[in-house]
Specification:
The chain is mainly alpha-helical and about 200 residues long. It is built from 10 helices and no strands. The longest helix has about 30 residues. It binds magnesium ion (MG).
Length: about 200
């Protein structure tokens, strides 16, 4: 095996490195040149360096879990989520630098995947809408089943007629409450949710 002459290798690397990488003045000129063409160099650089660094922090946790005996537990999942948040922060920087939005970036990604997998075409908006409709149908089905078994089955008994006929006292308030839940005027367990968020 031939030994590599590392000094020669470094000379070679230097020879093929651009002026703005080697020289502060050249870098300044390049930044100025880019700035006048409308490039947001400061935010682009912030985003590029930050995305790499934060991805590294996310990867570090995964590496330690898989190869260094760190447990996959609540703390480490929390840590990874926090690093994902940091990545999002730098994605937002990149979005500002490129004058775009998260929405456009995701839509572009969906378009790219659709082109790559034409057979598996999908639409994020539709699938979200389908999930919402399925949830609504399931809720409606649960309500109808409960209404049938509790109200209808009891109210067909003559012994209960005297309690059932005053629908203004039990059915109307329930429907009113249900409507408030449907329109999100009232959110179930809101106080508990607020409390947990504040922890
Ligand atoms: Mg971080």
């Amino acid at each position: 095996m031939t030994n590599v002459d590392t000094e020669k290798y470094i000379e070679f690397v230097k020879g093929v490195t651009s002026e703005p990488s080697l020289n502060y003045g050249a870098m300044g000129s390049r930044l100025a040149e880019l700035e006048v063409t409308g490039t947001n160099t400061s935010q682009l650089l912030t985003a590029a360096l930050g995305l790499t660094a934060e991805s590294g922090e996310f990867t570090e946790v995964v590496k330690k879990i898989i190869f260094q005996g760190k447990p996959y537990n609540e703390d480490n999942v929390f840590h990874m989520k926090r690093e994902l948040g940091d990545i999002c922060w730098y994605i937002a920087q990149a979005c500002m630098a490129l004058d775009t939005t998260f929405d456009e970036v995701i839509e572009m990604n969906v378009d790219k995947l659709q082109a790559r997998y034409p057979g598996g075409s999908f639409d994020v908006h539709n699938s979200r809408e389908q999930r919402r409709r399925r949830r609504l149908m399931l809720t409606a089905f649960n309500y109808i089943t409960a209404f049938w078994s509790v109200v209808v089955m009891n109210c067909i008994q003559p012994a209960n007629w005297e309690y059932c006929y005053r629908v203004d006292q039990w059915l109307v308030p329930e429907l009113h409450e249900g409507w408030k839940l449907y329109t999100k005027e009232v959110v179930p367990y809101q106080t508990e949710r607020d409390f947990l968020k504040g922890l």
